[in-house]
Design brief:
The protein has about 450 residues and is of the alpha+beta class. It contains ten helices and 23 strands. The chain folds into three domains: about 1-120, no CATH class; about 160-295, Tetratricopeptide repeat domain (Serine Threonine Protein Phosphatase 5, Tetratricopeptide repeat, Alpha Horseshoe), CATH 1.25.40; about 295-445, Nuclear Transport Factor 2, Chain: A, CATH 3.10.450.420. Helices cover about 30% and strands about 35% of the residues. Strands 1, 2, 3, 4, 5 and 6 form a six-stranded antiparallel β-sheet that branches. Helix 4 runs antiparallel to helix 5. The longest helix has 22 residues, at about 300-320.
Amino acid sequence: MFSACIVLLAGCNLFPSPESLIQLPKQVEAFVDEDILSIARRNLPKATELSVAKGPVGSDSVMKLDLDADKKEEALVLYRSTTNPNQVGAFVLKENKKKWEKIFAKQGTGSEFSWASATDITGDGKDEILLGWQSGGADENVLEIYQWDKNKLSKLKELTFHELELIRFEGDPMTRVALWKRDMADAYKIDLLGWSGESFVADKSHYPSYFQKVIAYYEQRSSEVPDAAYNWYYLADAHLKANHPEQALEAVNKGFKLKSVVPTQENFKTLKSQIEKKLMELENTEIDTIVNPKYTSLEDEYVLNKVKEASKKYSYVMSGGKMPEGQVKTVTINNIEYRYLGSDLDTNAKMLNYLSDSFTLSAIDSFRNNANIFEYFEKLIQPNADGGSLLNYDEAVVVQKRDKGNEKEFDIKVPLVGSLTYEFVHISFQKTENGWRIFSTPGSF
């Protein structure tokens, strides 16, 4: 309905140029009781609507960030044209003296956002903005990184990628960029990059930590397609970068025996020479026990935070919401005792508003049906019983992902509270107009 209203009000206005968005920044009062989503919508250019990036899962159409480390949040807003669906753009809102103004606007070079996030790339305590664009027919995505410098956002660097992962290492403020560039089929050339102060360079000191993941990927690929020489080649390369030269030599020898056009025989010989050199270095070096630092993926953080928040919301609804002091008001229907939900959840609108930041509309409908929550004389009621979960999502980890385009699935390992045991939980996310939302029914995790 909101999109339809925008179109009706805007008529046939063309998609505005980024210059028109910056020259005369629009200011609006920053009301205390108005959320950032409403403020973002009021600042949308004519004939546009909010949009969502393909990645990372868990991101929204409006994202909070801190560009200048002043502890006051700015907002990155993504949008697309309603008259030209292949045109997207982004702008940043910053609060100044209780007013919000646009400090940055960018019209996309592609037809959709392949990536949109904010994180500290340079390690200076300030967030940088990362915008990935995907053009129709283009093979690679373009990633533009913007930094707050001298009271404005300037482009720091531009990179290309097919798949992207942002990595945070334990005890290190700087976020690393893992670029996956497709070589052929499901084979990728992979590198881990860190900011050097002037450019991105290979972060070889953290190779042993990150390339364990790459090893797992190519071990699966080589077991599924053992006759593909390139799988063994990249498995050997990953083992070498992870400081496993013995396993690297075994993998490169298997690949070398297979007929291969890409990588060439010369590529295999060069890689084998590098592996043998590494073996000789280790023979002449005293080996100390090295503990590789742990890392987390930015997308995994987003996903787990969404799941944790959704689990708390589910438990809150099942407890009845904000109940009045004293006796809870109940009603008996068909010999079943129901209670009226609390004042913050007692209408359809309130329930939808509370849950829609975490769940899709279909998931909310399924939840209400399964939990037997329904309207009774214009107020919501539920069976008079409490439910809870023993799953500790504060210690959960993502163990597997499946990409289905606008739907993505995650397998999460979750320990039980006060126990050494754990459960595997399967959760599906769906891309909606406001952001990635959980498609799985509340209560199923």
